[in-house]
Design a protein that fits this description.
272 residues, eight-stranded antiparallel barrel, 9 strands, disordered N terminus, 2 domains
Length: 272
């Protein structure tokens, strides 16, 4: 009896461990509603909508790893806002009906930056005090960003970007008390947005910028003369269909071991 109780208790512990997992799968329903092209014409950047574009709906799936996280503590950023950042590594993601065509525009060389991630930005004005707290701006985003060249290089650069962005407002918080989300809070925010249509939440684009000579070496990109800027962008709406925590292989192994122990305990039980 003691042996069976011990095995059952161990199986219960292992079974509880199976509830813990670090990979999250998110499925999105997307509707692309517009396409546009932008070009620099006589020194002025002009955007032309594609009037023949046909809206198209598709699903998009991705998984990210909660263990592979980069959390940046709150800090004062531009405009005196208090900002907290967090990102989680993308494990896998599908493509959209437009990805291949946009990526075909990019240079054939490997990108200097290739960074898909799931993440968040929390922001509250630094003027927010305990006496007069201000609501926190909450942005959750899934982004795939690739760059050829670098900002600030006189020859120019190319960028491919795809993102899904979800904005919301959190409780009023003094700037001094702003903290980053835990991985569980990030997932909870996504779950809370499930089923909500986010107008303009999807964007996918390609940019190619050619710069002239650097007017003042060492200055920022704004100090350069841009001689060409070509862009193709697709925009649309997005709905989070589901957010699922997926057990890892090691978790499945623990689950199997727990079930095996339960079966062994039953086999050892004396016949009635």
């Amino acid at each position: 009896m003691k042996m069976r109780s011990s095995v059952a208790a161990l199986a219960l512990v292992l079974g509880s461990a199976s509830a813990y997992a670090t990979t999250v799968e998110v499925v999105l329903d997307v509707t692309a509603v517009s396409r546009s092209e932008g070009h620099l014409v006589n020194g002025e950047y002009v955007v032309n909508p594609d009037i023949g574009f046909q809206p198209q709906s598709f699903s998009y799936a991705l998984t990210f790893d909660l263990d592979n996280a980069t959390i940046i503590p709150p800090d004062t950023a531009a405009f005196s806002d208090k900002v907290a950042y967090g990102s989680f590594g993308i494990v896998s993601e599908s493509v959209t009906p437009y990805t291949a065509a946009l990526r075909a525009m990019t240079p054939s060389a490997p990108p200097s930056i290739d960074m898909p991630f799931a993440g968040y930005i929390l922001s509250v004005p630094a003027s927010s005090t305990a006496e007069a707290p201000v609501p926190v701006s909450q942005t959750a985003v899934f982004n795939s960003f690739a760059m050829w060249g670098a900002l600030g290089i006189s020859s120019g650069y190319s960028v491919y970007s795809r993102y899904f962005e979800f904005n919301s407002i959190g409780a009023p918080t003094p700037a001094s008390e702003l903290v980053g989300w835990t991985p569980e809070q990030f997932v909870a925010n996504l779950v809370a947005r499930t089923g909500q249509n986010v107008v303009g939440g999807y964007s996918e684009s390609y940019d190619n910028v050619v710069n002239g000579d650097d007017l003042l070496p060492g200055m920022l990109i704004e100090a350069m003369s841009v001689v060409a800027h070509d862009n193709v962008s697709i925009h649309g709406d997005v709905v989070i269909r589901s957010v699922t925590v997926v057990p890892e292989p090691a978790t499945y192994a623990l689950m199997g071991l727990g079930l095996s122990l339960v079966a062994a305990a039953r086999r050892r039980r004396p016949a009635a």
